[in-house]
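2024-03-11 09:14:02 INFO queue: dequeued item RNA polymerase sigma factor SigY, len=173
2024-03-11 09:14:02 INFO validating residues
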Amino acid sequence: MKEEELIERARNGDKYAFEILINDSLPILKGYMIKLTCNRELAEDIIQDALLSAVVNIDTFVPKAKFSTWLIKIASNKYKDYLRKVKETDILLEVIPEDYSLEDKVIEKNEIEEIFKILKNMPEDKRNVFILKHYYGYSYEEISYIVNCPVGTVRSRLHYGIKEIISKFKGGM
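2024-03-11 09:14:37 INFO prediction written
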């Protein structure tokens, strides 16, 4: 069944259709939030909030983007709300999650830690755009929709974010 059909059925109260939409999107959402927050427990809390909002607001979803894109937008906004509430912009990275086995095989653990530390210390707007583009392959237009800014701003944030990562990787400041 196509995503559009599932969305229409979910809007009409079909819990099974909504469950399929969530199950298809959950791995992407989880990975994104863990990378964005650098904190598994916080990511899970935000995901729960985002899913609850999605259930409550399914009627407002306009399928001009994928359902997973809409969920990521909701979760990103929930994370921004969290940061505003606790006024915490520098969440500490205590442990690299164990589930990065593929990356562990490709890059040594200390390099992964270095990359996550660089990402953690980047401004949230650049980090968001970088993760969405390079970890999930979203188009500039989709990222623009998620972060609610013009495509040109997305391109600029990505450009400067990459420059920052390159300059800081391997000891550059």
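2024-03-11 09:14:37 INFO annotate: The two ends are 50 Å apart (CA to CA).
2024-03-11 09:14:38 INFO item closed
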